[in-house]
């Protein structure tokens, strides 16, 4: 097994376990392979096939409690809440930015998440926006450090106000000191490269 991939995977898990003031909602990674058989997140074992209009992904269910662990007077393990996601394709820019953006729905709440990797050689800024029904928009800015390590940007969770299909998310990655020069735009409903 490649030690670099193990290190990256371990680093991502550590980052996800830190309570960063609501910026990270838990390790319910899901996404879409880029069709090249080794995309950014599938390399780390964090995603599987899913499309912008295809079936949604669900976080894995916990194992069923055994009779020994859930005896009389002893409750079984708590069930993890179901989280569904609708993700666009993995996109990359010639400047070295890769991203995939998703809308997530769980427990009556909706939020946006963008997974990224920045090998551009400079720090960037991401703006992630989730657009919902009746003109509702939630937006957040995230600092995107340079390096080969994957990261994520996530909006706060908001009470859902419509069907999951009525929400979309868009992340824009730009150079903050270059008049906001846009390097990559990634959306939850972006077309797959090469389609149409």
Report a brief summary of the structure.
The chain is mostly beta strands.
How would you characterize this protein structure?
The protein has 196 residues and is mostly beta strands. The chain has a single domain, classed as Immunoglobulin-like (Sandwich), CATH 2.60.40. It has one helix and eleven strands; from the N terminus they run αβββββββββββ. Strands 1, 2, 3, 4, 5, 8 and 9 form a seven-stranded antiparallel β-sheet that branches. Mean pLDDT is 72; it is low at 16-38 and 43-71.
Question: How confident is the prediction overall: mean pLDDT?
Answer: 72
Percentage of residues in helical conformation: under 10%
The third-level CATH topology is Immunoglobulin-like
Tell the overall outline. Answer: globular
- Detail the poorly predicted runs: 16-38, 43-71
**Which CATH architecture?**
Sandwich
Using the coordinates above, name the CATH class: Mainly Beta
List the helices and strands and how they pair.
Elements: H1 3-17, E1 57-58, E2 84-87, E3 91-92, E4 97-106, E5 109-118, E6 124-131, E7 137-144, E8 147-154, E9 158-159, E10 168-175, E11 181-187
Antiparallel strand pairs: 1-2, 2-4, 3-4, 4-5, 5-8, 5-9, 6-7, 6-10, 10-11
Supply database-style keywords.
mainly beta, 196 residues, 35% strand, 7-stranded antiparallel beta sheet, globular, Immunoglobulin-like, 4-stranded antiparallel beta sheet
């Amino acid at each position: 097994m490649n030690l670099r991939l193990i290190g990256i995977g371990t680093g991502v898990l550590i980052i996800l376990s830190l309570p960063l003031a609501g910026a990270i909602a838990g390790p319910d990674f899901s996404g879409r392979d880029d069709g090249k058989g080794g995309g950014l997140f599938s390399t780390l074992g964090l995603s599987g096939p899913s499309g912008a209009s295809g079936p949604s992904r669900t976080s894995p269910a916990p194992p069923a409690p055994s009779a020994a662990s859930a005896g009389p007077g002893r409750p079984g393990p708590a069930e993890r809440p179901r989280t569904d996601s609708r993700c666009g394709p993995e996109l990359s820019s010639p400047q070295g930015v890769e991203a995939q953006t998703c809308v997530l729905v769980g427990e009556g709440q909706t939020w946006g998440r963008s997974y990224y990797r920045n090998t551009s050689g400079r720090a960037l800024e991401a703006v992630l926006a989730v657009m919902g029904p009746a003109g509702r928009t939630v937006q957040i800015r995230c600092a995107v450090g340079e390096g080969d390590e994957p990261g994520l940007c996530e909006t706060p969770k908001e009470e859902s106000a419509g069907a999951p299909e009525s929400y979309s998310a868009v992340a824009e990655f730009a150079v903050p000191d270059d008049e906001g020069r846009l390097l990559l735009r990634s959306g939850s409903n972006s077309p797959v490269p090469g389609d149409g």
